[in-house]
Protein: Methyltransferase type 11 domain-containing protein
Amino acid sequence: NDASLDDVCRSTYPVLRSDEEGYTEGNAETLDGVPDESMDSYTIAFGMRNVPRRDLALAAAHRVLKPGGRFLCMEFSPHVWVSLGSKQPPYALPPITPSALAAAASNLPFVGP
Structure:
């Protein structure tokens, strides 16, 4: 399929076709090109756990949000399972640190550029 993520999102969600509303895709740690205090909201779903430097991503989110802007982050949380009185399901993977992921990936036969 030759459709880009942008094409898929814009065809699926009509609000993204508007010039007034939209989304920005970019490096969560820097948000390059996004002006300070320019966003009404910042959303990230199941992505913060994949950001190596969460401190930088949170600082960037804070930088681009307008005063009173909304930060919305959806992630899996062990606290939810505890509050529901059940254990985390057996299929849930434990968190992995960036260094552990890098060590595991160093043994994979990646194809060079």
In short: Confidence is low (pLDDT under 50) at residues 79-88. The first strand starts at residue 39 and ends at 45. The radius of gyration is 18 Å. The domain at 5-103 is CATH 3.40.50.150 (Rossmann fold).
